[in-house]
Model the fold of this input.
Amino acid sequence: MHRPRNDMIAETRAKLIGAARRAFGTLGYANASMDDFTAEVGLTRGALYHHFGDKKGLLQAVIQEIDAEMTARLNKVSRSAPTRWHGFVEECLAYIHMALEPEIQRIMFRDGPAVLGDISQWPSTSGCVASITRSIDQLKADGLMTGIDSEAAARLINGASSHAALWIANSDDPQRTSKKAAEGFRTLLEGLRTAKA
Done:
């Protein structure tokens, strides 16, 4: 039976992303050989170029996949918290703590910025800021957060959490840095909380 072209394209892309993710996560972007990870899944370098343009394009696709997984995990953290305020704080802190996970640390917070540039300029950042803005709007509507401009607060929180994750990922002692970053970040967020929260 002949498989639909779209299924074949999706399968090829998934194979390349999976192989690249394993290589980038273990060897790092610079040391990952395109020939090795294409051969691993029975594909050619030509398939990589066709679907992603180049190795950098493939890294972007890997980062999009990891980012989507991180977002799903963060949403679960906020949904399982006892209150909306706690959910907001725990979601922010969970993002920072993810910088301790080897794959995320290497791909998202070391190689990603080195290859793709400033993390605040990545396409996913605008969606992240929009999501934080919506959360802040809701917290303000519930009387749980002070009357700060929602977009300004979202951009500052997003920038602080991204910077904290980068600090952890590039630290000589990530565990110690993570503890310091989380404590500092929690203190910053508490300054935005109303007594009602």
Remarks:
- The radius of gyration is 19 Å.
- Residues 168 and 184 are 13 Å apart (CA to CA).
- The domain at 1-53 is CATH 1.10.10 (Arc Repressor Mutant, subunit A).
